[in-house]
Write a structure and sequence with these properties.
The chain is mainly beta and 381 residues long. It has a domain of 216 residues. The protein contains two helices and 36 strands. The chain has a 22-stranded mixed sheet that branches. Strands 4-6-9-12-15-18-21-24-27-30 form a ten-stranded parallel sheet. Strand 2, helix 2 and strand 3 form a beta-alpha-beta unit. The relative contact order is 0.07.
Length: 381
Amino acid sequence: MHARLPVAAVAALLLLTGAAPTASYADDGPRTWQVGPTRALTTPSAAAAVAGDGDTVLIDAGTYAGDVATWTQDDLTLRGVGGRAHLRADGQNAQGKAIWVIAGDRARVDRIEFSGATVPDQNGAGIRQEGTDLTVTRSWFHDNQNGILTGADPDSDIVIRRSRFFRSGAGDGYTHNLYVGAVRSLTVTGSWLWGADVGHELKSRAARNTIVANRIDDADATASYSIDLPNGGLSLVAGNVVVQGPRSENPTLVSYGAEGLSNPSHRLWVVHNTFVNRRTSGTFVTLADGSRARVRNNLLVGPGDLTGPVTAAARANKRVGTSGFVDATANDFRLLAGSPAVDRGVAVPRRWRPRWEYVHPAGLVRRTTVGRTDLGAYELR
């Protein structure tokens, strides 16, 4: 628990700056702190020094160059206001790890941008998550060695919504746009991950993974797997547009169990995705021996095997060309009325159906079905 400064001490600290206090506070309740160039607290790191458990830190939009921080408080809300607050590393880091090291539990990060995190061991991250539970919304992570890097915590749930991860990776194959350790669960929805440098777009060792309604796109980068679940786990990959680029250094789009099925569950559902392979060959879903995979209602664009080397229980997966989409060259894979994907789906148990569709960039809407379901990531509207 982070110690809370007495009210009088906080007020005195703020007044020393010559600015009016920009926090509302009470002895026995959460406080709201305002951060910005015209505020008494001019940087997020200044707020990290005075905030307490349960507080809210509102950071004015703008660029905070070289400002890094460690957050030890529990139940913090860290939010950009008036737009995204951009934390640009400019060669600085907290603890040799990240722009922000979040050591407290149950942090919420909203509308913050993290860029340029580099450290000597090449594991520099926008956020290094060391506490239990993290929720990230409407935030950007780019040009870091890792976008987010979490530790192992069997009680931790990581939730990411409507966020962007791009151009991260140290080029060594061990750093990724998003790298989640052995936590209890990972949920990623309505997000856009693209352009990883040699590493994966998304890598998760979580015991449970819910990856629904995202765009995951290598673009012209040298990314490896689009989705890597190296230890298995109870996992749903549904309603995503996954595009493997022509320069990808690995032919697999979704990899399951590549480092051993060490998680308790070996069950994977891959449903209603639109998979696009722009290499000359590949495998859409690579499965380790012992996987219990169900692969249904996916669209396959481009060459490659559906699964391998282990077969899966597969139904209603269809290989199609690009003419049935709104604009495949621009990665708009919404369906046209004449698409062979319309009304071709088979039933999927309710628990494993995608409830959302991705809306570019970094958004989502409810997926609604009229009559028989359509194949792929979108229903015809």
